[in-house]
Amino acid sequence: xxxxxxxxxxxxIYPQSFKDTNSDGIGDFGGIREKLDYIKELGCNxxxxxxxxxxxxxxxxxxxSDYYKxxxxxxxxxxxxxxxxxxHDRGMHILLDLVPGHTSVSHQWFxxxxxxERNAYTDRYVxxxxxxxxxxxxxxxxxxxxxxxxxxxxxxxxxxxxNYGYYRPEKPWQQAMDAPGPRAAVxxxxxxxxxxxxxxxxxxxxxxxxxxxxxxxxxxxxxxxWQEIRAFLDEEFPEAVMVSEWGEPDKALAGGxxxxxxxxxxxxxxxxxxxxxxxxxxxxxxxxxSEFVRTYQENYKKTExxxxxxxxxxxxxxxxxxxxxxxxxxxVAFAFLLSMPGAPFIYYGDEIGMRYVxxxxxxxxxxxRTGSRSPMQWDGSLNAxxxxxxxEKLYVPLDxxxxxxxxxxQAADPDSLYHEVKDLIALRQAHPALGNRGGIxxxxxxxxxxxxxxxxxxxxxxxxxxxxxxxxPASLACEYSxxxxxxxxxxEAAAGDGRVTVPGGFYGFYRA
Length: 512
Ligand code: NOJ
Ligand code: CA
Known about the structure:
By secondary structure, the chain is of the alpha/beta class.
C-alpha cells in the first residue's frame, strides 16, 4: 500500500479560485503549477483537486459531461499531465476528484439514455418504467425525455443518478447489482480510473461514495461494489490511493478505501468542534467535545490498523473555519487538526484564516457554499494577486474587507496563523508519535468541560497534547510530567499535586 500516506498532509485546491494565469477570472492548471512551491513550503506534500473535467458547471464541476477530458477553462489533458509531473518532481502527490454517482444532464450517455429506442445507455441511469411513477430518493427528472419513465437524481435535479443497481430490487424497473446495466456502469467507472491513473494521478477523492447502490440502507451493496473496485486497483494499480466522502469510516474502510473524511453531515459530531452555535474551539468556552470524542473512539476501534480517519479544516461545501472561530482561536484549532491521527486536510486559504464571504449570490450551484469559494488571497496587488482580470470577471467576488488576510502579509509576520500552521506541520513531520498512523489515547475530554487532552504514540515515542480553546484557565488531573515541552502557545502550564492548570487560549505539546 502507498507508503506516502504515512506522512501525507493534504492541501485541497478548488481550481476555480486558486490562481488565474490567463486573466479570464477563473483559476487554472497553470496557476496551480505556479503555486506548488507555496504549498510545499507550507509543509503539505499532497493535493486533492476538486473536479476539473468537462462540465456545464451547474454544480461547480460535480456535474461531469466528459470524464475523459479536462474542462478547457482549466487547461488541456496534456497540461494536467504536466501539472502532475511537476507535483511528482517535488516529491508530492495528487488525488483527482471522481464523481461516480451522477453525471450532468448534458452528458452524451444521458442524452442517449433519454431516447425511446433501446441503446447501449438505456440502463446507464436509474429510470422507472412510467412517467407517473417516481423513484424514491432525492428527486427525479421527469417529462424531458421521449422515453417513458422518471430518472432518479443523485443531488441537484440536473444530476441524474448512474445505475449501480438496487441491493434488493423490489419493483420491475429496479435492476439487480449484477444486471447488465449496472455491470456496464461499474466497468466504465474502472475505465475512467484506469485512464487517469495511467495519465499519472496518485488516486482519487470519491464524491458521495456512500450513495452508489440504491435501496441499500446499511451500505452493504455499496461496500461490495467498492471492494470490487479495490480488487481491480490491487491488481492493476496497487499504489492508487482512495479517500471517500462517506462520513462513516468503518463502512468506507470496509469497502477498501484507505481513508474517510469526517464531514459536516453524518454521525461524527465534527460540527461540534467548529461549526455550531457554541463551537468547542471558540474562546467563549461553552462548547462540548465529549460526543465528538465518544464517536471518534468508536470509529477508531472499528478501523484501527485498517485505514485513516481524516479530519479536514473545512472544504468547499462547509462554512469557512474562520466563520465560527477567530484570531488565536484558529491557532488552537490547527494545533488540534495537525496533531490528530489520520491524514490532515487543509482547505485552501484556511492556513491564512480566509473568511467566509457573507451575502454572495450563488455561483455555479454554490448557494450558501459560495462564501467559502472566494479567490485565494495571495498579496496586496490587483485582485489580491489571484487574477489580472477585471473585477467583474472574477469567478466569485473577493473578500471585500480592507483587512482581508493575504499570504504575503502573513508570511511577513512571524506571529501569523500561516507561520503557526507551518510550524505545526513541521512538528508533526518531525515526530512519529504525531504522525498519521500513530496511536491516540484521550486523557481528558469531559462533557461541557475544558481543557481537552490526549497522548499520541508511535515507535516508543509519546507526546501529550493539551488544548484549551476557552479564554478561561482550566485544569485536569494529569500524571504526566510537563518538563519536556516541544511547543507551547498562549503561556505556560503549571503542574503540582497530580494536576495541571493551563491558561486560556493555550496549547502545549510535551514529550511524555
Ligand atoms: C459532494 C461535493 O463535495 C459537493 O460539492 C457536490 O455538490 C455534491 N457532492 C454533489 O456531487
Ligand atoms: Ca484562467
